[in-house]
Amino acid sequence: MHIGLFFGSFNPIHIGHLIIANSVLERADIEQLWFVVSPQNPFKKRKNLLHEFDRLDMVRAAIHDNFRMKASDIEFNMPKPSYTIDTLTYLSEKYPQHHFKLIIGEDNLKHFPKWKNHERILEDYGLHVYPRPNAGYSELKEHPCVTLTDAPLLDISATFIRENIKQGKSIKYLVHHEVESLILSKKFYHS
Question: SS3 for 137?
Fold first, then answer.
C-alpha cells in the first residue's frame, strides 16, 4: 500500500491540516494518509505545546470518520530528537509491505537540503509537496522525486486558534467539531 506521511505537532489539528490531507489523498498516488504526531522534545519546554497523547487524541477525533486517514504515535517511543529519516527507516522496517512518501508544505522545501539524510529521503521515499503562502522558489520543485500536489492555499495557524481560545473567542469552523468539544471539555490552551 502507498501511504503518505504528514508529520506535525498538530497543536491543535485544524481544518487546514484536514483540507490539505484530503486534497493529497484525492490527488496523489497514495491510498492512506497517516498523521504522525511529533512528541514533545524533553530538552525544549514549549509553553503552549499540549502533551503528545492529548494531541494524538485530537487527531483521532478529527479523522475518526475517514478510514483512509490514521493517527500515528510512532515517534513517541523513538530516541529524541527523532529525525524524519529515522522514522521513515523504522516504518519501512516495521511495515515492509508498504511504500511511504513524505508530505510537506512548499515552505519547507527551501530548507529541505538541511534535513538529515535529505538525499536518501528524496531517493527512497520522495515528497508530496502542497502549496503554502509566501513559500518562495526552490530548485527542488524540479526534482524527479518531488510531486507538487494541487491543494487550496491555506493560511490557518494553530497559534491563531490557541490565541482565540485564550481570549475566549470561538474556534468554530477552524477545527473539527469533535476537536472543539475536546478542547472545551478538557480546557486545553485556556491558561
Answer: coil
**Are the beta carbons of 138 and 112 closer than 8 angstroms?**
yes
In 3D space, the residue among 16, 18, 62 whose CA is nearest the CA of residue 155 turns out to be 16
Backbone phi and psi for residue 34, each to the nearest 5 degrees, phi listed first: -110, 125
Contact 88, 126 (CB under 8 A): no
Q: Which amino acid would we find at residue 94? A: K
Strand extents, DSSP E, the chain:
2-8, 32-37, 69-72, 99-105, 127-130, 146-148
- Residue 92: CB atoms within 10 A of its CB come to 14
| Residues 74/36, Cβ–Cβ less than 8 Å | yes
Q: Whole-angstrom Cα distance, residue 158 to residue 38?
A: 15
Burial class (CB in 10 A: 0-12, 13-18, 19+), 168: exposed
- Looking up cell 508530505 gives 103
Per-residue pLDDT of the chain (191 residues; tens, 9 = 90+): 999 999 999 999 999 999 999 999 999 999 999 999 999 755 455 677 999 999 999 999 999 999 999 999 999 999 888 899 999 999 999 999 999 999 999 999 999 999 999 999 999 999 999 998 888 889 999 999 999 999 998 889 999 999 999 999 999 999 999 999 999 999 999 87
* 127 in Cβ contact with 133 (< 8 Å): no
What gap in Å lies between CA 157 and CA 53, rounded to an integer? 20
DSSP 113: G
